[in-house]
């Protein structure tokens, strides 16, 4: 509760709020303080269009009002309307809370015809009065209602009362004239606390008072809090109760306000429903902020531990080697200095001058670390105190059972909670300084080079951290991402990525370089690969990261209930490896060419295990070209027909017949060609090491190639007279069953 006290104090007087009013900027101020800081402005400075009151200023009005602000962060501390006699230049003051406010302006004598209000009402406000918020420094021009145009913050007033009551050790009698005695009872009907003498004197148990119910003081305090809420009335129509809520204006309204059409085009909802909705929103925001506060408390414990590690303590010197790691420090400040002195004293006298310089450097580093951590502790402590105070204040506000009063401040509180929660965002709870002294003294130089003595780094890098959110597998490719641990200051020259064989075998290096992300292609389907990474520098190789298991695409059962699993893979044409004349479209599934010569394009996924089947439909076929379909190695020639070199195994086809071709050798001419809308199928079976082609769902010739082994990519060659579209993720044809004795014949 103590942290909440600052939330309950006026920014002007520094005392607890008394009759607080809500400014359009959502800040609060005592009614008396608001009158004290009023400034009268000349007529020329207050157009009617810019007048503001508690219900008539939108967020956009502040763009104009800020131009009239008497104070800003860049101000020199003085606010005035220079050049006007009616508003002399006066220095601003500072409240007990540290907020700069303006002194009371000398009010102009009221007009003689002004009618005084009822007793107890506010004195008349001079025309064209201006009020500047002491917290955000936004200027508000009051309308004819003056300060009565600002809504009273009854919820805040109730929270202040409850807070002050909770600070009172014992409830005092309300009728004792001099020193109040401790109350012994409370009358629920009179709503008065009595001590025994005052009760006998002022509340005798006879007559009409005999029917009053007397309860213990503690129970009376509770009954006061749980008493039926007062029905709030409209500030413009004092006889009307507030029953609705205008969503656009964000304020409670009465029935007469709606009848007058002031909110005719606005969305209006029931007051009770909006009360419950905003309470829920504030509670939800508080839950998030509470988590941030818990993290901040844990973070402060870590920072204080860092101070204990960095703070010099008595102890013997040890070898000048400091290991890195959060919360692990083998040598603190004094040990570091003592070891440095011991090594320097062992050298000849010429080393003493350099020794002093090195000690100065260590001291500066030590003081710098302490200063950074202590500053962060101080900053985080203040922010946590403010956060805790806001949370306690909001919890007290939620207990309030006055819907209209709650809704007057709920939006501002919700925004404040969100803003405060955002201040605990990413990076706020991260130490700005490590507690390690990552310095190693090299005492090996010769005496003639002793003036060059300096600290050098002789540590291997820490184990990298795998970024699991960025690691993934697609088909038979795996992408891994990693980074150095936070606060690590050790230089890294590069990284080594290792994978096993997907079957629990030995690890092998698959990447060495400076990048922190790597994609490995050509892995086996339906396999689990173990991966790890380590960093290296001139001092050596660091520890391995944690081992990550990565599963490549799973397999699917064939339609014929076969025992061998067929891999269902989705892939597209690869624009990065295609010949420059190749034209891709339809998300890299459709391909053609802008050259009359044959050009090669491959798929973006390679195969080395399992049974795979894909199809290619002919979208356009002009002038009887000879497109080729098949598989190829990654280094196949891209500017000749597929199969011309020894890196591709293909079937090329015209409109009447087809041939198989590998290493420019043509075999097995077969009748039957392609035309527009024809379908060419490619079946690659690594279990038997064979490649089969189909045209329009029928096998084209015998088995095209045998002894298929290794890594192959789907491939096509074509020219500008052909356009084809790739179809993947297909099951193998019904006629084909891996393991058949003979497939040299035709279709099953």
UniProtKB/TrEMBL annotation:
> COS domain location, by residue?
398-456
* Matches recorded under SUPFAM superfamilies: B-box zinc-binding domain, Concanavalin A-like lectins/glucanases, Fibronectin type III, RING/U-box
Q: Which UniProt keywords apply?
A: Coiled coil, Cytoplasm, Cytoskeleton, Metal-binding, Repeat, Zinc, Zinc-finger
Gene3D superfamilies named in the record? 1.20.5.170, 2.60.120.920, 4.10.830.40, Classic Zinc Finger, Immunoglobulins, Zinc/RING finger domain, C3HC4 (zinc finger)
Annotated GO MF terms: zinc ion binding
- PROSITE patterns (alphabetical): B302_SPRY, COS, FN3, ZF_BBOX, ZF_RING_1
Q: Which InterPro entries match?
A: B30.2/SPRY, B30.2/SPRY_sf, Bbox_C, ConA-like_dom_sf, COS_domain, E3_ligase_FN3/SPRY, FN3_dom, FN3_sf
Subcellular localization, as worded in the UniProt entry: Cytoplasm, Cytoskeleton
Q: Which residues form the B30.2/SPRY domain?
A: 550-735
GO CC annotation: what is one?
cytoskeleton
The segment(s) forming the B box-type domain are 168-217, 229-271
- UniProt domain Fibronectin type-III: residue ranges: 460-555
Q: Which PANTHER family match?
A: E3 UBIQUITIN-PROTEIN LIGASE TRIM36-RELATED, E3 UBIQUITIN-PROTEIN LIGASE TRIM9
Q: What is this protein called?
A: Tripartite motif containing 9
Q: Which organism is it from?
A: Salmo trutta (Brown trout)
